[in-house]
Amino acid sequence: MNILTAEKVVKVFPKKGKSRSFRLEIDQFSIEQGSFTAILGPNGSGKTTFLKAILDLKFLSEGTIQINRIDHKDKLARKTVSYLPEVYSFPGDLSVKTMLLDFGSIEIKDRDYLDERITNLAKQLKADFLDEKIKALSKGMRQTTALLHTFLTERKFYILDEPFNGLDAVQKKKVIDFLLELKKRENISVLITTHILPDIDKICDTIHLIREGSIFQSASNSQIAEKYGSVEQFYLEQFGEEAAL
Amino acid sequence: MTRFITIQLLRNKILMAWPVLTLISVVVLLWYGESNISDQGEAAIQIGDLILPQWQIVTSYINLIGLIVLISFPAFLIENLQPERASLIFSKAVSRTQFFGSAFAGSMIVTVLYSVISAGLILVFFLIKGAGVPGTLLVGILALPLLVLPYFVTVLLLSVITKNYLITFFLGYVITALSTFLLVAEGLFDASGVESQLLFAAIATGNYVIPGVGPAYELLSFIVNPVSVTVDGESSIVSVSLHYLISMLPFTGLSYYCINKQEF
Predict the structure, then answer these.
(1) Would residue A40 be called left, alpha or beta, if left means φ above 0 and alpha means ψ between -120 and 50 degrees?
(2) Beta-carbon neighbour count of residue B143 at 10 Å?
(3) What span, in angstroms and rounded, lies between the C-alpha atoms of A118 and A130?
(4) I need a labelling partner for B151 at 20 to 30 A (CA). Which of A17, A60, A102, B112 fits?
(5) CA distance A97 to B246
(6) How far apart are CA B1 and CA B21, in angstroms?
(7) What is the edge-to-edge ordering of all strands in the sheet holding A70-71?
(8) Among A residues 94-123, those touching chain B with beta carbons less than 8 Å apart
(9) What is the pLDDT averaged over residues A68-88?
(10) What is the biggest distance separating any 2 CA atoms in chain A, rounded to whole angstroms?
(11) A63 versus A199: which is more confidently predicted?
(12) pLDDT along chain B (264 residues), means of 10
């Protein structure tokens, strides 16, 4: 069963002033339940736009997207999914725990459950700074806080935009182990974008490459391992020349 | 969602100035002031030789509350509508309609709460000073959410459109002041001999397009200073109430439309 299906998706940003026009065009895209999928591509290729279109944060010009077989515009569709944006803003004056309690209360009414969930998640992701104010956190701690926020609600599907931004090697491993544990235990699905390619080998089953708004290459992890050796090599062979130019 | 917004507003330090300043005023008045209630039930506060009747107390109070609301409400609206925050909120199972309704509900919950606290503090002052219960003054203060609503509607639209704190504050100030002016503008121009039908049409339109801070003031004055109701009191209250309600529809509708059309 597919947790996500996107068909004939088009999102057009017309040219405005000095900003260039951009067209995201994805003919067919799906993610199976329990699968970890990555979309990789250079900056400005349309990764974040596609993720935001899935969540109806950016409106489609054409096409349809379904999350768990529900139209993505319906708020019920978002009961299946949790999202980590690449850029986020939490109130700096609050402690991490207070912020998580506040934001968690939007969807979770049971305060005791929420409290317990925060404590457990913090243990699993080794976040021992729940009482610190957000404005006093380092970049890595802020990213861990954002991950705590994302995993606060137990979902079947997680959309993670650059989840490893600012994390050190130890913290990154914690997050990867946590995701793999969730996959094993809860059969979750993940759609991820990242520039940190070595980690993708460890977690993703399917990789899609995107350039100028279109997915032009897709492969399974095993196909990539067989043909290119690693995702990094796969990526460099596709984009290396562009990067050199 | 309402709980989330209510908590945000309760944490807003500028909005918190409302009950805090009331508390400080009551403490100062307990020290230096006196109170009395006339046989007609009109309350007054005396500080030295200065006597403040209840309509003057409420007028000064609503000017202060209006300013606090204009400064504090844009903050939470603009913060929540910035893409970095909105993408956290609207990626959850929350519709924009829900956010919109919760923004209204949260603002009104906090406003009613602060009005009740303020009325309670003023009641304590009058009771301690042995003047009795200042009924109409308390009703006037409890009715302050009536005044806050058009301020909120104005700030909501400006926040959604501009997403800029300073512009929202300044335009909000101008628009709410304009609403008060428009209420008396027709009479003023008429008295000064202006005969432009276009101007009168513009004033009439403005009266029903701009959220009615003016009518809200008028409704409050009906409550705290019934003597001011001179001509056909009851029908005047009904028409002012209708004016008050209708005038909020255009800004509310436009804000709702804009929130639903915004991408984050």
Answers:
(1) beta
(2) 19
(3) 9
(4) A102
(5) 43
(6) 29
(7) A22-32, A2-13, A62-67, A70-71
(8) 94, 102-103, 105-107
(9) 94
(10) 56
(11) A63
(12) 93 92 89 80 81 81 88 91 94 94 94 94 87 81 89 94 93 89 80 81 86 83 65 68 90 95 92
CA–CA min distance A152, chain B (Å): 11
As given in the structure block, the two tokens for residue A220 are 């399974």
State the pLDDT at residue B120.
94
Q: How far is Cα B48 from Cα A1, in angstroms, rounded to an integer? A: 80
C-alpha to C-alpha distance for B57 and B51, rounded to whole angstroms: 10
Give the gap in angstroms from C-alpha B8 to the nearest C-alpha of chain A: 8
Cβ neighbours, 10 Å, residue B8: 20
Q: Does B82 touch chain A (CB under 8 A)?
A: yes
Read off the pLDDT of residues B89-134 as tens digits, 9 standing for 90 and up: 999 999 999 999 999 999 999 999 999 999 999 899 888 888 778 8
Inter-chain contact B91–A57, Cβ cutoff 8 Å? yes
Helix ranges (DSSP H) in B129-232: 135-142, 144-162, 165-191, 197-209, 213-224
Nearest residue in B to A151, CA atom: B92
Model's pTM, two decimal places? 0.86
A to B CB pairs, distance under 8 Å:
72
- ipTM, two decimals, is 0.89
Banded model confidence at residue A30, pLDDT cuts 50, 70, 90: very high
Q: Please identify among residues 40-69 of chain A the ones whose CB lies closer than 8 Å to any CB of chain B.
A: 52, 55-59
B230 touches chain A (CB under 8 A): no
Angle between helices B54-81 and B96-128 (to 10 degrees): 150
Percentage of chain B lying above the pLDDT 70 cut: 96
Determine the distance in angstroms separating the CA of B162 from the nearest CA of chain A, rounded to an integer.
Answer: 18
Q: What is d(CA A156, CA B42) in angstroms, rounded to the nearest whole number?
A: 63
User: For residue A174, what are the CA distances in angstroms to A207, B18, B188?
Assistant: 22, 46, 72
Q: Quote the tokens at residue B192.
A: 């000064």
Q: Which is more confident, A89 or A245? A: A89
